[in-house]
Specification:
By secondary structure, the protein is mainly alpha-helical. Helix content is 49%, strand content 11%. The protein contains 6 helices and 4 strands, in the order H-E-E-E-H-E-H-H-H-H. The strands form 2 sheets. Strands 1-2 form a two-stranded antiparallel ribbon. A hairpin with a 6-residue loop joins strand 1 and strand 2. Helix 1 runs parallel beside helix 6. The chain is globular, with a radius of gyration of 15 Å. 29% of the residues are buried.
């Protein structure tokens, strides 16, 4: 008899699928560029992560495609997210207004609770998007 995965495990699997998709989506020729320091690595290199512009990783921003971009592990983990540089990235590269950025920051205060089914659906959604993008870019 197989054991039902915990909600924590489901969330981890959903995050893994989401992060893979984000890194591939923002790659060029399979290469990601860290939005805060410019480090370049393949989208599937363990040194490349999916980092949040909004600190805290609350459920309301965890799977938010608007505020997650490729970020190297040094910037994302060791240097605490490099939020100042991340802010500049959005201003310069994505041409976001101060109002857009404020709205991003305010998202973390929204309360979101995921059910087990929500997490399964998120995982499936991003696994499909990832595979479709791989096929579209002829990377499989």
């Amino acid at each position: 008899m197989s054991k039902k995965p915990s909600k924590k495990t489901l969330k981890k699997h959903a995050w893994t699928a989401f992060a893979k998709y984000i890194k591939l989506k923002h790659s060029v020729n399979s290469m990601c560029k860290c939005v805060t320091c410019g480090y370049v690595a393949r989208y599937d290199d363990p040194s490349m992560q999916a980092g949040h512009f909004v600190p805290g990783r609350t459920n309301s921003v965890l799977f938010d495609e608007d505020i997650v971009r490729p970020q190297c592990s040094v910037c994302n983990v060791i240097n605490g997210g490099e939020y100042g540089r991340y802010f500049l990235y959005y201003k310069r590269e994505e041409l976001k207004t101060d109002e857009d950025l404020e709205e991003f920051l305010n998202r973390k205060f929204k309360i979101v609770k995921y059910s087990e089914q929500d997490l399964k659906d998120i995982r499936l959604k991003y696994e499909k998007l990832f595979l479709n993008l791989l096929a579209e870019r002829c990377l499989c």
